[in-house]
Amino acid sequence: MSHYPSSILNLIRNLSKLPGIGEKTAERLSMHILRMPIREANELAHSILELRENVRLCSLCFALSDAEICNICGNPERDAALLCVVGQPAEMVAIERSGSFRGLYHILQGVLSPMDGIGPDNIRIRELISRIEEGQVREVVLATSTNVEGEATASYIAECLKDYPVEVTRIASGVPIGGELKYVDQVTLGRAMEDRRTF
To answer: I need a labelling partner for 170 at 20 to 30 A (CA). Which of 17, 22, 64, 111 fits?
Structure first.
């Protein structure tokens, strides 16, 4: 790639540091950016700088926000007695897209993973308990992933909350709608059988 000027090489090098972007994709993106009208290139550069300067964690739920308190926590129409606990902001976004939850969130910013050195003090469990102690929450919905780490985190939180006057629930898991049983893995199918309900 030595045939490119240093400014293009620098952009390719920086773009290829992004997850899922290899050198060839970074090269294509660089060429696309080079052909952009200057106004669009400036908007792209500005949006990256604005992201880095303005985005922070909500002081209540730890979601990504442009302000001290995120739009969800600041919405008086949300049910403050219902608190959904997730591991990462992307999981909160997935639940929001479903349109099925009207409460508030608590984002742990990770899950328990002793193999990776992540224990209870490395995620936002203390802050969760502080929110429960304020007395406004009546139900905590544990919506961590159903992998080993997510299940361990949900179990740990449920144990921490057993002496508080809140109902602790776990999201259902199992066979996806439209899924064929022959393609569902054994763990998911087993969970679906365990969590069966009256029809």
So the answer is: 64
State the residue for tokens 């696309």: 32
Question: Could you tell me the CA-to-CA distances from 77 to 68, 74, 81 in Å, in that order?
Answer: 19, 9, 12
* 63 and 92 Cβ atoms separated by less than 8 Å: yes
The answer to whether 154 touches 171, Cβ cutoff 8 Å, is no
Task: Tell me how far apart the alpha carbons of residues 13 and 175 are, in angstroms, rounded to a whole number.
Answer: 43
Confidence of residue 185 (pLDDT cuts 50, 70, 90): confident
Rg (CA), the chain: 22
Instruction: Evaluate if pTM is beyond 0.90.
Output: no
In this structure, what token pair is assigned to residue 137? 């929450």
Spell out the domain ranges in the chain: 6-54, 75-172
In this prediction, residues 100-113 reach a mean pLDDT of 94
Cβ atoms 149, 111 nearer than 8 A: yes
| Cα(37)–Cα(72) distance, integer angstroms | 36
- Best CATH choice for the domain 6-54 from the list 1.10.287.3510, 3.40.50.11310, 2.60.120.260, 1.10.8.420: 1.10.8.420
For residue 109, is it left (φ>0), alpha (ψ between -120 and 50) or beta? Answer: left
